[in-house]
Write a structure and sequence with these properties.
Layout: E1 8-16, E2 20-24, E3 30-34, E4 50-55, E5 65-71, E6 77-79, H1 83-94, E7 106-113, E8 118-125, E9 131-139, E10 141-143, E11 146-149, H2 155-169, E12 173-180, E13 188-190, H3 196-208, E14 211-219, E15 224-229
Parallel strand pairs: 9-12, 11-13, 12-14
Antiparallel strand pairs: 1-2, 1-4, 2-3, 4-5, 5-6, 7-8, 8-9, 10-11, 14-15
C-alpha cells in the first residue's frame, strides 16, 4: 500500500498519553502528532529516532499529523500505525498472497462472534460456503534478534485466543495472523516473559488446530506491504 499522503520526517522527542508524541521538525519547530498505537511500543519510540508522519486534510482533526513509521539508529524501519495492519492483510488476501488461504475469495471485516462478544478482524468464505476466522496482530517488539507478541499483558488478546479455540471446536477453521511491521524481525514467538497467560493460551490454541501465519513487511517512506512469510517459533 502507498501512504495517503507523502510522509515527512521529524525527530522524536517523546511519546506520551498513549496517543500523542512530540517531535521536532526539520525547521526546528516542535509540534504534537497523533499516534494510532495503544501498545507499549517497546523499542519503537526511542527519543532521537526519525519519525515519518502523514498529513490529514480533515478540518476537524485537532492533530493533523499521524505517526506512520519509525526509522531507528540501527537502520530498522517500524510500522507504528497499527491501523495499517488490517489494511495490509486485506491487500495480501486480495492478491492471494497466502497460499493456505487462497481458496477464500470473499470476506467480511470486523464481525462480532463468540461467547465473549469479540470482533474478529476477518471472516473469509468461498463458493463452497466454507468459512475461516482470521484475527490479525501487529508485531513490533524486537528482543535478542527475535520478534515477540505481545509487548505487554493483553487481556484482549487472551480473549481473542479463547474465541478462536471455541470456533475450532465448532468445526470451523481459524487462524492468527502476525503482521510483522519491523524489518529487523525474521521470526516470531509468544512473549511468555511478558504475558505467560497469553503464551500458554496460544500453545493450547495451536494444539487444537488454530493456525498461525506470520508475514514480514517491506517498509519504506513511500510504501508498506506484507511480502515475506517468516516462521512462528513456539
Amino acid at each position: 500500500m502507498e501512504f495517503p499522503s507523502p510522509l515527512q520526517p521529524a525527530t522524536l522527542i517523546k511519546r506520551y498519553k498513549r496517543f500523542l508524541a512530540d517531535v521536532r521538525l526539520p525547521s526546528g519547530e516542535i509540534t504534537t502528532i497523533h499516534c494510532a498505537n495503544t501498545g507499549a511500543m517497546t523499542g519503537c519510540a526511542t527519543p532521537g529516532d526519525t519519525v515519518w508522519y502523514s498529513t490529514s486534510t480533515s478540518t476537524t482533526r485537532k492533530y493533523p499529523y499521524s505517526w506512520e513509521l519509525s526509522q531507528t539508529t540501527d537502520h530498522h524501519w517500524i510500522g507504528i500505525n497499527t491501523l495499517r495492519a488490517n489494511q495490509l492483510v486485506e491487500e495480501l488476501l486480495t492478491r492471494q498472497g497466502v497460499p493456505s488461504l487462497a481458496q477464500f475469495t470473499h470476506w467480511q471485516r470486523e464481525v462480532t462472534f463468540g461467547d465473549e462478544k469479540s470482533r474478529i478482524d476477518f471472516v473469509l468464505s468461498n463458493e463452497k460456503e466454507q468459512k475461516y476466522y482470521l484475527e490479525v496482530k501487529s508485531v513490533t517488539l524486537l528482543a535478542n534478534g527475535k520478534g515477540y507478541f505481545p509487548d505487554t499483558v493483553t487481556a484482549r488478546g487472551q480473549k481473542h485466543l479463547r474465541e478462536l479455540m471455541s470456533i475450532v471446536k465448532q468445526g470451523y477453521r481459524a487462524g492468527l495472523f502476525f503482521a510483522v511491521l519491523h524489518t529487523g524481525i525474521d521470526q516470531v514467538s509468544a512473549a511468555k516473559h511478558l504475558d505467560p497467560v497469553y503464551a500458554q493460551l496460544l500453545r493450547e490454541a495451536i494444539a487444537i488446530g488454530v493456525e498461525v501465519i506470520a508475514y514480514r513487511a517491506q517498509i519504506s517512506r513511500h510504501q508498506l506491504s506484507l511480502v515475506d512469510p517468516i516462521p512462528f517459533v513456539e
